[in-house]
Amino acid sequence: MKPQQIRDMLAQTLEDRRLSRGERSALNQVFEQLEPNQRELANYRSMAFDLARDAIDATNGPRVIEWLEDAVKLLHQATDASAAPVTAEALFSPGDDCPGRIRGLLAGSRRSVDICVFTITDDRLSSAILDAHRRGVRVRIITDDEKATDRGSDADRLAEAGIELRTDRSSYHMHHKFALFDGSILLTGSYNWTRTAADSNEENFVITDESRLIKPFAKLFEQLWDKFA
User: Fold this and answer.
1) Measured distance CA(186)–CA(213) in Å, rounded
2) Which residues are part of the catalytic machinery?
3) pTM listed for this prediction
């Protein structure tokens, strides 16, 4: 949404010199979707003052000021949301319990798990994936076609259990290693879902609930899911 569209929305709410509950709710929804940064919010506040300055006269001053106070309060709440602390952590192998952390994320998922990894051979993770599937969580897996047929791969086992699984069917590798849990937590890094990664390799992954990172990964997953249909 362009700044002018935000200005137009604010101007529309000012027409009756009050910010109604419905208008407040609509604006809150817009700002939740846009997730404006501090600079953008400052620009929106400036718009509100400009609109009030243009609208105010000797007869409507108190009502315009009341609208301005409500509008600035709403934008301040949007500022608080955009500045909210982000949950993030980093794990490294060997050393940290990387499989245990992934199993915990799988166990905590209630609606969906989207997994996009080069290979899955760690039975501890495969079992946790199957547990989530049996609880009614929608699990989707994208993996590399060559690695899916390697000895020790759990791809066939997961697919045979009814889990949706797609491969790239390409001479190149599907080399991503990320997963999304309930669309609200992202795990990504170098870590392959294998015993070797857990016990021997120098690997890493990060976990975050930062929506500005989750959204592009979720978009990529959907693109790859459609591409490999």
Assistant:
1) 8
2) 175, 177, 182
3) 0.65
